[in-house]
Amino acid sequence: MRGPRLSLRVLRPPQPAEVRLEAGSPIFVRSPVGQGTVSVAAGPWRTTGHWWSDSAHFAIDHYDIETSDGTLCRLRFDWRTRQWQIDGVYD
Q: Which of 4, 16, 23, 34 is the most buried if burial means most Cβ atoms within 10 Å?
């Protein structure tokens, strides 16, 4: 028997987020999508590519988080721009 499934709804463009860290992990998030204390976090998962190109290179850490307001989302940190964003919401 299978349990409930979640779907990730990708946000384009990603929404900006303010993130507080403790020991390198997100502990609080504020964004247009949701806000609150991070109650559960998984990650980071690093994605990199096009390292040979200055214009197309990317390096992003993703986290799956749940905040105290009940939001389940995909948080990301872009190492090139040094910005936090929400780029997906779990439904």
A: 34
Are 78 and 60 spatial neighbours (Cβ–Cβ below 8 Å)? yes
Contact 26, 19 (CB under 8 A): yes
Let me know if residue 17 belongs to a domain: yes
Q: 């502990």: which residue's tokens?
A: 27
Position 7 in a domain = no
What lies within 8 Å, CB to CB, of 84 at 6+ separation is: 16, 17, 18, 19, 29, 75, 76, 77, 78
Q: Is the pTM of this model over 0.70?
A: yes
d(CA 69, CA 87): 18
Tally of domains within the chain: 1
